[in-house]
Write a structure and sequence with these properties.
Helices cover 72% and strands 0% of the residues. The radius of gyration is 20 Å and the shape is globular.
């Protein structure tokens, strides 16, 4: 609530000629839909380091860290743009779990590592800890993207299938299939853009026990990396516990093989 109040107050301070900007940002904030309040992530980082989350709310920063924070923004958007382009141009025929994870590190890991590193900079910690927070944000971004991929199927939106996106779950299906099955999966993936039946059949394939088992094993491994980084960082335990919980909630296995017939295919 404090974050929302801070943003509203900031919008009110915009001059009259910025009415279009005020309206656009207000609409964006009003319509954002997150399963978990990811806007608090940098505040938790700051609180782990200092015991106080509130200074991370600031929208203008001291001269001593302004250059470092500006550099983080530039670095993030170069890597994130590369990740998004890799995602858009992804070729299912050559996709592997490693190649998809690399794309996820760009399009999702880069923004998360940016905000965690920036929060650590604001907390005034040494460079080594900033880099550890960057590593944490990187792996947290992968976990969140995997979580988001699951919700896309469970919600029935199926935007990934409609867009032909090469997801980590698809890579798991390709990795666990024989050559003839691989050809079938690639055909279904191509047809799913325009065929409801192909989407339904592909979802059925993606929710096979062997595929979900590989997916969960890898998600557990990414979660383990995130927890090991937090263990190495240490910090103020009440807030560290909040961060550990956020990791666990973001890496839950939501998909099950018996959901295949229950998912609404749009």
């Amino acid at each position: 609530m404090d974050i929302d109040a801070e943003m509203e107050a900031t919008l009110e301070r915009l001059p009259p000629q910025a009415g279009a900007v005020r309206a656009a940002v207000a609409e964006l904030v009003r319509n954002r839909e997150f399963t978990y309040p990811l806007s608090v992530l940098p505040l938790i980082v700051h609180a782990v380091e200092t015991g106080a989350p509130e200074p991370a709310v600031s929208l203008a920063v001291p001269e001593s860290v302004r250059g470092a924070l500006s550099a983080e923004i530039v670095k993030c958007w170069i890597v994130a743009a590369e990740g998004q382009l890799s995602d858009l141009c992804g070729d299912a025929a050559t996709a592997t779990r490693d190649s998809v994870a690399t794309a996820y590190r760009g399009k999702s890991g880069a923004p998360f590592s940016m905000v965690t590193a920036m929060a650590a900079e604001l907390a005034g910690v040494e460079k080594e800890r900033v880099e550890l927070w960057r590593d944490f944000g990187d792996v947290f971004g992968i976990l969140w993207q995997m979580f988001n991929d699951q919700e896309d199927i469970l919600s029935g939106r199926n935007e990934d299938l409609l867009n032909g996106t090469v997801t980590y779950l698809l890579a798991c299906a390709l990795d666990t299939s024989a050559s003839r099955s691989t050809e079938r999966i690639l055909r279904l993936h191509a047809d799913a853009r325009n065929s409801r039946d192909a989407r339904a059949e592909l979802i059925d394939t993606l929710l096979a026990p062997a595929v979900l088992g590989r997916y969960q094993d890898d998600m557990d491994e990414f979660r383990g990396v995130a927890h090991r980084i937090l263990d190495e960082l240490g910090g103020y335990e009440p807030y560290l516990s909040v961060m550990r919980n956020l990791v666990d909630e973001s890496s839950r296995m939501l998909l099950r093989a018996d959901l295949a017939r229950e998912v609404i295919v749009g």
